[in-house]
Amino acid sequence: MKQPYVYITKKIPKEVIGPLEKIATVKMWNGESEKVPVEFLKREVANATALFTTLDDTIDHSIIENSPQLKVISNMAVGYDNIDISTATKHSIFVCNTPDILNDTTADLAFALLMSSARRIVEGQQFIKDGYWKDWGPLLMVGRDIHHKTLGIVGMGRIGEKVAKRATGFDMEVLYHNRTKRDSVGEALNATYCSFDELLEKADFIINLLPLTDETRNKFDESAFSKMKNTAIFINVGRGMSVVEEDLIYALQNGEIASAGLDVYRHEPISNQHPLLKLDQVVLVPHIGSATIETRTKMMQLTVQNIVNVLEGKYPEAYVNKDVKL
Ligand code: DGY
Questions:
Q1: Which one of 1, 158, 270, 291 has the minimum C-beta count within 10 Å?
Q2: Could you tell me if the CB of 83 is within 6 A of ligand 1?
Q3: pLDDT given for residue 154 in this prediction
Q4: Pairwise CA distance, residues 297 & 275, whole Å
């Protein structure tokens, strides 16, 4: 019998794909720094049974409908806004993700951005590199306190809970806004539910953790930034499309908010000419929320395991379109 064929859109360590190679023919995109071109991917996937993707691969209806053998799309991310879920579901294709294993790591990064922005870590290093550090000054590189301030978490899911837990160690007051009020989480983490507007008005730090949906697209716009305190620090580790970047830049340039720490952008990767890079008070990292060796290894393993399960006739360990049945 012909072996199933699995296509992987990124270079993955040999030892991680071992379990797949035992049961399938595996082909992998070999580009060093360049992403697999869409037309090439379409051809490669036309006969595939399974597809291993990452969050920057757009798997739209044209790719799915051109792949009649496809049984599973396994995305190495908790988010899955890059995949056309309804078309996949219509064709009974499992769409898998990697939830939970990245919660603490992503919360760490959110906090790292918060602290770097508040305490001007990147600016401070640049100041030394540029040779400006001549003496100690009472107000040299002063930032803002983190402890005893108010943190506003927008999107209180599993990563939000981990962020709230970290905030309690800093004696912060935690506000959150979510589609639904989560009483158990609120009590356990001493986090208070409030409306989006109230959170924007009261929080010193605002962390966006929302997944990208039609409701969350462009949520942080001119009107949202204008409601924040002038001293507010905005952190985004959710999705770039939730933020209208021109409005964020305007708010930063005009002192409507104090600074920002960003892991995600509307169009990734951003170039080194992006206007956000011209603002000293902004800390930018290249979508590395889950990027630790421990977590990325677990994510790759789960992405592979989800495929192995389907190829062996079992349900995947983590999948998002529950209407698909074996
Ligand atoms: C995800 O997995 O969706 C995150 O954006 C990774 O950092």
A1: 1
A2: no
A3: 98
A4: 34
